[in-house]
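FAQ: What does a ligand-bound record look like?

Like this one, built around nicotinamide-adenine-dinucleotide:
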Amino acid sequence: MRITMIGSGYVGLVSGACFADFGHDVTCVDLNEQKIAALKAGKIPIFEPGLEGLVADNARSGRLTFTTDLAPAVANSDVVFIAVGTPSRRGDGHADLSYVYAAAADIARAVKGFTVVVTKSTAPVGTGDEVERIIRETNPAADVVVVTNPEFLREGSAIEDFKRPDRIVVGLEDERARDVMTDVYRPLYLNQAPLMFTGRRTAELIKYAGNAFLAMKITFINEIADLCERTGANVQDVARGIGMDNRIGGKFLNAGPGYGGSCFPKDTLALVKTGQDFDTPLRLVETTIEVNDRRKRAMGRKVIAAMGGSVRGKTIGILGLTFKPNTDDMRDAPSIAIIQSLQDAGAKIRAYDPEGMEAAKTFLNGVDYASDAHDAASGADALVLITEWNAFRSLDLRRIAEAMVGNVFIDLRNVYRRKEVETAGLNYVSIGRPQGATDTAAQAAE
Ligand SMILES: NC(=O)c1ccc[n+]([C@@H]2O[C@H](COP(=O)([O-])OP(=O)(O)OC[C@H]3O[C@@H](n4cnc5c(N)ncnc54)[C@H](O)[C@@H]3O)[C@@H](O)[C@H]2O)c1
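The answer part, i.e. the structure of the complex:
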C-alpha cells in the first residue's frame, strides 16, 4: 500500500514508521520545514524509545520518506492519514479542528484516483462528516472515502502500543474502505489484534469515551488518596484491593499529582463541550476536569505545608518535569502548575528531567536547570519527585541528603518506601500514605 501521513508529530511519525515496518510505502508530510529537514538528516525531533532505530531502518530501506510537499505524496497514495494536532481552541475549550480541515482541503486539491482518507487525529463526533464535506466541496470529482481510525498509542511505549494494540477501531460509512483498512493493518490483524469496524461517529466517540474514562479513574483514586491521608488508610493498598476485582482492574489506579499530557486534558474538555452542544451534559467528566485542575496547585500547597507553611526564599529541587516518564512531552504537565504555584509563593526552583528540559523552557520561566538528580538536590531545602523516571527510582538517598541543605523529600508518585527515605535522614511525604505509616502490604511483601 502507498500511504501518506499528514502530520509527523508523536502520532504521525510513530504510525508512519510502523506502517513502513509492516512493508507499506510511507511518505510522512509536515508543514514544519525544520522537522522534515531533521528527519531527512536522520534526526528524530521527539524523544520516543526505539523510534530512532525504527525510522533509520525503514528510511534506509526506502519505504519511509519525508517531505513538506503534500500534493505529489497524496496524488500517489492509496490511503492518506490525517495525524495533525487537535489542541484545545483558545477561549472556549472546543477541539481546534483548523489543522484537520486545512489538511482535508489540501488532500482534496491533490488527490488522484480512488483514495481512502483516514482521520487518525482525535477529533469530536461529526468531524468525519465535515472532512468529507470539505473534500467534496473543494473537489467534487474526488473519488474518496472518509474513514475515522482513532489512535490509542501512549507516548513512552508508542511503538509497542502501535504494534500490539488492544484493538484497532475503524469507523466507516462506505464499505469500499473496509478491505483497504484491513490491508493497511493486515500484519496486526493476522497477529490477532481485534479489528473493530463501526460507524464513523461511533469510532469518534470511542476515542473520547476511552480517554475520559481513564481520566476519571485516575481522578477517582486521587480523591481516595486524599481521604486516605485524612483517615490513616493507605491508598496503594486500597488500589490493589479494588484493582484485584476484574470488573475494576488494577491499571490507572496510581495516585499522583493529577493527570496531564497532550491528550487527557484537551480530550476531556472537548468531550464536555460536545456534550453541551448536543444538550447532553457529561457531569462526571466535567467534575473530573475540575477536580484534576484543582489538584495540581493543591500539590504546590502540599509541598509548602511539608516545609512548614512557607517556601519564600527556599530552594526546591524538582525531579521530573514531563507529564510522564519516557517522553519529552511537556504539554499540560502537572509540573508546570506545581512549579508555578511554588514560584508564586517565593520559592527558587532547581529542576532536572532526563529528556524534557528543552521543551520545559517554553512553558516555565525562572527555573534553574540541573545536570542530574544529585545536582537538582544540591543546596535544596526540599526535593520533590514529580515524574517517576527510572533514573529516579534508585537514587542514592544518603548522597541526596548530604547534597541538600534541608531534609524534606516529597514523593508525588509513591516511588519510595518510607523506611528507606527516613533511614537516609530525610523527612518523607508521599500521596495517600499517612505520615508515620508502615510500608504498604504490597511493598512489605517484596
Ligand atoms: N500524542 C499522543 O500520545 C496521542 C495519542 C493518541 C492520539 N493523539 C492524537 O493525534 C493527533 C496528533 O497528535 P500529536 O501528539 O502527534 O501532535 P503533534 O503536535 O506532535 O504533531 C502534529 C504535527 O502536524 C503538523 N501539521 C499541522 N498541520 C499540518 C498540515 N496541514 N500539513 C502537514 N502537517 C501539519 C504539525 O507541524 C505537527 O508536526 C492529535 O489529534 C492527538 O490528540 C495523540
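Follow-up question: can I read anything off the structure? Yes, for example: The longest helix spans residues 200-231.
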